[in-house]
Structure to design on (700 residues):
């Protein structure tokens, strides 16, 4: 049995459109996706997928459900198999085991905490709208901030009165447990002699203070030591992606400098700060619809912008941006616009977040507001149309943004600072996984800042190597293989000495040819028997596998990766039936050939699937683009082989591999002759590479 916490985690992380699109060609239509129903024959699409709701529905045959239901009905998976499939897709380890009494207790506690926070939200909302103090103090504050009644309802805003313990007494009278109220931060304990005595009994050694024991001591606190955690504050409920209230933010209304301006719920079983974004539940439909998300810092920033029509907006609640928050946004869009104040702190904050988004393949833009403005004040002082126009015109990509920061006198006069600034831009580019985008941005920076392309490219390549090193370390420490590999792993020297799994997880050790060979295997196994009948396939009327073999054989090419090489050669020995089901054939290998099975599974896993998010979201199925993509891949692969050979020859001519003893042996005259031959080979290979890249570009 899979524990319920894991199931919830998997379901929250699952993007149903990504799951369904593995089996059905989806087309975007507004905020949803449509397709011809996979459960019955139809010519007009009536099968709809909603990412925001996490469901699918066919208006033809009536089939509907969530991601698990789809896998059960379409792929005949069991419930457990479906959860494991989704877990692997999301990078979450799913263990099938019997639920322990402790796990059942934790789940019951989680449900109880959610019931308490839901009750508290209604209590605070009622206090704001239907009590004299709430109306005169809390509601007046919101009205002064120009927050409308509609927004108050939509965001569930509330008010905690000035009474010392009115919420505490009411909640306890309703039967809510004291220890759970304390855990949410809604109720707190005032230390007195009795609670300190109990604390000392539980914690005799104050030098080894234990947080769990501290919480236990609170549970012994007498009722008269309890008080409301949010007194005389306006309340901003924080919801999770499913709309459940998990925490609260409270802003003070008194001018007492001893009070914190904002207080927030402590982390708990239901509230993990680095995996929560304020306003995401309210914004997710608009984010999906607009395929774009605006990111700000505070609660009122979100509300004020939403009131002016910018509803695809969320806030990090003043905390540093985290990986968990980025993954939440990634479920709905790959386009992010970061809004920050026009001061230096805002600029630096935006720079820190940019690199994290870039590493996750986001298209990142930045908007710097005018001096002295924040998103809240700027939204209030402009009409909806003015705000929309400004955001569209002021948004600039991160390269243009960073390059603009270099146009100050201090930086131009100090070469050391300028060099550090260029390295900072290079570091941002280096984290981008897509090589094409890295090259385009490198060229853009080179032209904008007048830096030699080669020098900049070398620096970015070096930094990229560091990025891959860090990723390799992370994978060795746990990574997507879901186990900690504690022993030190030697750098890659010979692929024959590594298992398939080790070979895959050592990105830093892979040659530049690996990704091309991986993609060739992808097309060979999935579409080997397809006859595109267009482009370079038209005259010959050949299959994809025949086209690939023809080009490999004509130049005498062999795959560098030994596992890919074995798969490639074995494919052409298969009979008609096996070659049509090549993916299944290689995926089911066991015994000594199990590494091949693992490798094929990884190739078709989401991490290595050549169909990126952009391709998945396009209107054209990749099957109908084979006449372009396969030739482009082969030509680019050959061009990369030329590049590798040129690199080897350059090293040779610079005596990195040609030892001094060899030069002395063949004599000076002969060494010049050999150098001349090498230069001719480099020139010839460069011409061939140029022609291959021209042919590849022609396919685009």
């Amino acid at each position: 049995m899979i524990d319920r916490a894991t199931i919830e985690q998997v379901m929250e992380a699952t993007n149903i459109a990504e799951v369904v699109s593995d089996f059905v060609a989806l087309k975007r239509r507004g905020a949803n996706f449509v397709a011809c129903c996979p459960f019955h024959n139809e010519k007009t699409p009536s099968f709809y997928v909603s990412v925001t709701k996490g469901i699918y529905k066919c208006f033809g045959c009536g089939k509907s459900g969530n991601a698990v239901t789809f896998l059960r009905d379409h792929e005949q998976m069991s419930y457990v198999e479906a959860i494991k499939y989704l877990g692997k897709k999301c990078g979450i380890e799913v263990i099938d085991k019997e639920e322990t009494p402790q796990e059942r207790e934790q789940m019951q506690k989680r449900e109880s905490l959610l019931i308490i926070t839901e009750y508290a939200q209604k209590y605070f909302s009622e206090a704001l709208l239907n009590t004299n103090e709430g109306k005169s103090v809390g509601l007046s504050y919101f009205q002064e901030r120009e927050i409308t009644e509609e927004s108050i309802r939509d965001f569930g805003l509330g008010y905690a009165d000035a009474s010392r313990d009115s919420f505490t007494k009411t909640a306890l009278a309703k039967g809510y447990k004291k220890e759970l109220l304390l855990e949410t931060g809604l109720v707190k304990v005032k230390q007195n002699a009795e609670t300190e005595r109990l604390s000392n009994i539980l914690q005799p050694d104050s030098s080894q203070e234990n947080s769990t024991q501290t919480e236990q001591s609170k549970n012994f606190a007498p009722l008269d030591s309890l008080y409301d955690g949010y007194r005389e504050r306006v309340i901003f409920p924080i919801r999770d992606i499913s709309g459940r209230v998990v925490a609260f933010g409270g802003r003070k209304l008194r001018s007492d400098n001893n009070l914190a301006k904002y207080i927030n719920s402590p982390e708990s079983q239901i509230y993990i700060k680095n995996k929560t974004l304020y306003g995401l539940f309210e914004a997710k439909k608009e984010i999906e619809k607009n395929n774009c998300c605006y990111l700000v810092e505070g609660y009122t920033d979100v509300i004020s912008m939403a009131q002016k029509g910018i509803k695809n907006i969320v806030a990090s609640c003043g905390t540093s941006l985290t990986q968990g928050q980025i993954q939440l946004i990634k479920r709905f869009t790959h386009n992010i616009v970061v809004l920050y104040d026009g001061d230096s702190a805002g600029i630096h904050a935006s720079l820190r977040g940019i690199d994290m988004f870039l590493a996750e393949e986001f298209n990142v833009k930045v908007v710097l507001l005018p001096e002295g403005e924040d998103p809240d004040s700027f939204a209030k002082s402009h009409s909806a149309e003015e705000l929309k126009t400004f955001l569209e015109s002021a948004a600039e990509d991160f390269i243009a943004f960073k390059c603009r920061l270099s146009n100050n006198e201090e930086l131009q006069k100090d070469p050391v600072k300028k060099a550090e600034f260029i390295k900072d831009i290079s570091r941002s580019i280096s984290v981008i996984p897509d090589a094409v985008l890295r090259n385009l941005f490198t060229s853009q920076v080179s032209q904008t800042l007048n830096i030699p392309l080669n020098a900049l490219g070398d620096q970015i390549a070096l930094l990229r190597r560091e990025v891959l090193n860090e990723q390799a370390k992370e994978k060795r420490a746990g990574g997507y293989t879901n186990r900690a590999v504690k022993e030190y792993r030697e750098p890659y020297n010979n692929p024959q000495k590594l298992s398939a799994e080790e070979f895959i997880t050592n990105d830093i050790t892979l040659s530049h040819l690996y990704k091309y060979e991986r993609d060739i295997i992808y097309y060979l196994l999935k579409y080997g028997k397809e006859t595109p009948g267009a482009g370079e396939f038209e005259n010959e009327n050949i299959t994809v596998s025949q086209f690939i073999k023809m080009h490999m054989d004509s130049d005498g090419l062999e795959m560098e990766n030994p596992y890919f090489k074995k798969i490639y050669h074995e494919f052409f020995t298969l009979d008609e039936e096996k070659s049509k089901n090549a993916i299944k054939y290689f995926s089911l290998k066991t015994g000594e050939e199990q590494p091949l099975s693992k490798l094929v599974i990884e190739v078709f896993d989401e991490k290595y699937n050549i169909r990126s998010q952009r391709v998945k979201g396009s209107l054209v199925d990749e099957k109908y683009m084979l006449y372009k993509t396969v030739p482009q891949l082969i030509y680019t692969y050959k061009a990369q082989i030329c590049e590798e050979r040129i690199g080897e020859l350059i090293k040779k001519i610079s005596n990195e591999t040609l030892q001094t003893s060899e030069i002395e042996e063949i004599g000076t005259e002969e060494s010049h002759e050999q150098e001349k031959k090498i230069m001719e080979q480099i020139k010839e290979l460069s011409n061939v590479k140029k022609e291959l890249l021209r042919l590849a570009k022609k396919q685009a």
About this structure: The chain has 33 helices and 16 strands. Residues 478 and 573 are 38 Å apart (CA to CA).
